[in-house]
Amino acid sequence: MSLVRHVKLRVPAGAARPGPAIGQALGPLGINMADFCKQFNDRTETMGYEKETPLTVQLSALTDRSFVFDVRSPPTSYLVKKAAGVDKGPESPNADAPVGFITPEAVYEIAKVKNADQHRWHLPLDGVARSVIGTARSIGIRVKESED
């Protein structure tokens, strides 16, 4: 039993269904899509994520057609937009007018969520927070103390 390939997927929490999006990634590897969806939905339900929250999944396919997977936190841009109460970023890139604002406390909370991922345990929290601020800036959201 050895590794065939790693696959990275973006799947909504608690709402994975066997379909084209998952099928195109898992079908060529011989992985049972219904089995993956059931295991994924069960795991995300126990993790406490809101239904339909997009999650990144790192799946490792093995030669005996079995698999193991790691569920990671939602994308930073999703968390920033949710904290700012914004549905989408600016119409044009590098727009001068911000589309929303978040507080430093929100940045800290997002950084804590991102830092909980297994592949980020070694990164300092302030470095992850700076990355969150950079992502926010790139989607037109600014960080400021209060909304005045």
TrEMBL record:
Residue intervals of the Large ribosomal subunit protein uL11 N-terminal domain: 7-67
Source superkingdom: Eukaryota
GO BP terms: translation
Keyword Ribonucleoprotein appears in the UniProt entry: yes
Gene3D superfamilies per the UniProt record, alphabetical: Ribosomal protein L11, C-terminal domain, Ribosomal protein L11/L12, N-terminal domain
UniProt keyword terms in alphabetical order: Methylation, Ribonucleoprotein, Ribosomal protein, RNA-binding, rRNA-binding
Molecular function (Gene Ontology), one example: large ribosomal subunit rRNA binding
GO cellular component terms, A-Z: mitochondrial large ribosomal subunit
PROSITE patterns hit by this protein: RIBOSOMAL_L11
Keyword rRNA-binding: yes
Domain Large ribosomal subunit protein uL11 C-terminal: 73-143
HAMAP family: Ribosomal_uL11
Family: Belongs to the universal ribosomal protein uL11 family.
Protein name: Large ribosomal subunit protein uL11m
Organism annotation: Minutocellus polymorphus
